[in-house]
């Protein structure tokens, strides 16, 4: 059992405000509600809101044990609890939406229903596979995971099956499932779940909301328990979570929402960049506070981020240090392999110059891009760690492909032809799938192998397979003082002194399946998040060719004012 967090002695209210800048101080002293704090990247958001809560407790404006701070990850909730305890407000609850709802559901379910709460389903795949079997559907693992993602999306949007039926006819669905089959699968999954007395994570939020809305005794008890709400990362709130927040609040208005529309990168999970603006519209009496002084990045990096979001009602960041710093660089390369090698060489130079490898990150749009950069870093003697997911050669479909390649007989054909034939047996096709979940991730991984084969040339399949095995083996070196490799999604909320963003080409960022204006804007926000992870230096790179295919530079490079440099040379702008 974790040790209980003990509050420090209550400090003087004014001492809590010491060390805050002018904008943070306004945020901390704007109490009551409704309040919207628009906090840009690196502006001290967590510092401002924890000091706001602690200041409210110290002044008596907030009741410590009646305050609930909500965020989206257990890590963020833990960080918030630690800071609040240091500020003398350790009695404030800081939890994720799911943790808070699960505690309430476990408390009220037996009292209201007279029965034990159903068991929580840790993951959907096995139950969904049983539901598919009842419908005589045979779905590979990737399609099952994508179908599970569809269920999660429907529930996050608080959609009825009828509403989803309309959306399913215009959404890209997992291969092999038309709208009718997908709807049948959703309904079969719910039946199997009910028969087995199971609930999934989305049900936790839905059931808690329903219990508060339908049971006055539950509503009265919950609303008397929690009277002050703070919602961090409000731009990521889904309609389902918004309904739960509304149920918790009732007719009260003591709520503070905090976030940055420019960092909305989870639209696939129900997040909406317009949520903060909608909150202000729905609460015309709301106080709006803006945090725009970045304590993370130099003026050069902040300027790059501002140019990308210009004209989109975004916050305009200002570097608090006033230091211009090194201008972000743009470099183009002839191939993905050449790009990875050049980035690895640049990182090696940074390390030789005295930078701790742990202060350097390489950010990618999707996971299949990590394999080449891992190998390139190993080639210059640097260890790396992939954040948030399995390493490239540990992806199941990649492991199967490598095993098949090692056992295949050479027949004199070009390596590219042999590799293509083998991966097509694993579901690879020339064109990527329309979906962007597990099926697309597997396609991307196999496509990375095909690209390696194209660039390898020659007819020696055994040598190519051995090279892949060598690449995989080097990934298991110790990762002490390692360079971080992460997708941009996994990098959100983190920062490094030096950041290298690779793959800035059309089809990669923005990714190929982003076709609508809304989808392109999501890709732009992804790049914004990547840029604002950097503290001291930022490198942007792209490759002109993928195998024999010709690429174009990302449209976003023109938006930030980065012109196309000569091949293999960096252009500072």
Q: How would you describe this structure to a colleague?
A:
By secondary structure, the protein is α/β, with parallel strands linked by helices. 47% of the residues lie in helices and 14% in strands. The chain is built from 23 helices and 19 strands. Strands 13-14-12-15-16-11-19 form a seven-stranded mixed sheet. A six-stranded parallel sheet has the order 3-2-6-7-1-8, sandwiched between helices. The protein is globular, with a radius of gyration of 25 Å. It starts with 12 loop residues before the first helix and ends with a strand. Mean pLDDT is 86; it is low at 1-9, 475-480, 563-567 and 569-573.
Note the main attributes of this structure.
single chain; 573 residues; alpha/beta; 7-stranded mixed beta sheet; 6-stranded parallel beta sheet; 14% strand; globular; disordered N terminus; disordered C terminus
Quick overview of this protein structure:
The protein is 47% helix and 14% strand. With 573 residues, the chain is α/β, with parallel strands linked by helices. The termini are far apart.
Q: What portion of residues is helical?
A: 40-55%
| Sequence of strands across the biggest β-sheet | 13-14-12-15-16-11-19
Give a count of the beta strands, DSSP E runs of length 2 or more. Answer: 19
Q: Which regions are unreliable across 5 or more consecutive residues at pLDDT < 50?
A: 1-9, 475-480, 563-567, 569-573
Round the Cα radius of gyration to an integer and report it. 25 Å
- The N- and C-terminal alpha carbons lie at a distance of 53 Å
**How many strands, which pairing sense, and closed or not: the largest β-sheet?**
7 strands, mixed
- Overall 3D geometry? globular
The chain-level mean pLDDT equals 86
DSSP helical segment count: 23
Q: So what's the oligomer here? A: single chain
Strand content: 5-15%
- Derived from helix and strand composition plus strand pairing, the structural class reads alpha/beta
């Amino acid at each position: 059992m974790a040790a209980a967090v003990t509050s420090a002695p209550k400090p003087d209210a004014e001492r809590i405000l010491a060390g805050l800048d002018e904008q943070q101080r306004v945020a901390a002293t704007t109490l009551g509600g409704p309040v919207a704090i628009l906090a840009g990247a690196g502006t001290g958001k967590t510092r401002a809101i924890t000091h706001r809560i602690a200041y409210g407790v110290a002044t008596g404006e907030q009741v410590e044990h009646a305050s609930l701070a909500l965020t989206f990850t257990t890590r963020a909730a833990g960080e918030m609890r630690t800071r609040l305890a240091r500020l003398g407000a350790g009695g404030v609850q800081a939890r994720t939406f799911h943790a808070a709802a699960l505690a309430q559901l476990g408390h009220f379910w037996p009292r209201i229903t007279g029965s034990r709460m159903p068991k929580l389903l840790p993951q959907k795949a096995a139950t969904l596979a049983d539901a598919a079997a009842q419908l005589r559907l045979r779905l590979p693992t990737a399609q099952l995971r994508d179908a599970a993602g569809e269920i999660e999306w429907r529930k996050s949007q608080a959609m009825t099956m009828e509403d989803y039926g309309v959306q399913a006819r215009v959404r890209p669905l997992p291969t092999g499932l038309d709208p009718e089959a997908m709807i049948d699968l959703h309904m079969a999954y719910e039946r199997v779940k009910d028969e087995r007395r199971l609930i999934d994570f989305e049900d936790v939020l839905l059931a808690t909301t329903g219990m508060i809305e339908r049971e006055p005794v539950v509503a009265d008890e919950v609303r008397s328990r929690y009277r002050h709400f703070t919602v961090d990362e409000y731009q990521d709130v889904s309609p389902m979570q918004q309904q739960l927040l509304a149920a918790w609040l009732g007719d009260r208005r003591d709520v503070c929402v905090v976030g940055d529309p420019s960092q909305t990168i989870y639209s696939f999970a129900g997040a909406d960049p317009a949520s903060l603006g909608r909150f202000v519209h729905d609460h015309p009496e709301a106080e709006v506070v803006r945090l725009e002084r970045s304590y993370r990045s130099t003026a050069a990096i902040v300027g790059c981020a501002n140019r990308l979001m210009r004209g989109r009602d975004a916050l305009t960041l200002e570097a608090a240090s006033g230091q211009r710093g090194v201008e972000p660089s743009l470099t183009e390369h002839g191939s993905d392999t050449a790009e990875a090698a050049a980035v690895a060489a640049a990182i090696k130079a940074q390390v030789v110059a005295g930078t701790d490898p742990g202060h350097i990150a390489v950010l990618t749009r999707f996971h299949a891009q990590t394999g080449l950069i891992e190998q390139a870093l190993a080639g210059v003697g640097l260890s790396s760690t992939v954040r948030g997911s399995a390493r490239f050669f540990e992806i199941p479909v990649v492991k199967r492909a490598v095993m098949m390649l090692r056992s295949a007989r050479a027949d004199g054909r070009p390596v590219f032809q042999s590799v293509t034939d083998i991966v097509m047996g694993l579901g690879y096709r020339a064109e990527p799938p329309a979906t962007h979940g597990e099926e697309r991730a597997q396609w991307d991984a196999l496509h990375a192998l095909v690209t390696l084969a194209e660039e390898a040339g020659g007819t020696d399949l055994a040598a190519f397979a051995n090279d892949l095995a060598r690449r995989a083996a080097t990934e298991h070196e110790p990762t002490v003082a390692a360079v971080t490799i992460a997708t941009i999604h996994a990098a959100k909320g983190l920062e490094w002194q030096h950041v290298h963003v690779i793959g800035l080409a059309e089809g990669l960022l923005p990714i190929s399946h982003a076709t609508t204006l809304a989808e392109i804007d999501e890709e732009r926000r992804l790049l914004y998040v990547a840029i604002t992870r950097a503290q001291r230096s930022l490198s942007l790179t792209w490759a002109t060719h993928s195998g024999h295919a010709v690429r174009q530079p990302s449209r976003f490079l023109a938006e930030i004012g980065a012109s196309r440099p000569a091949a293999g040379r960096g252009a500072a702008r």
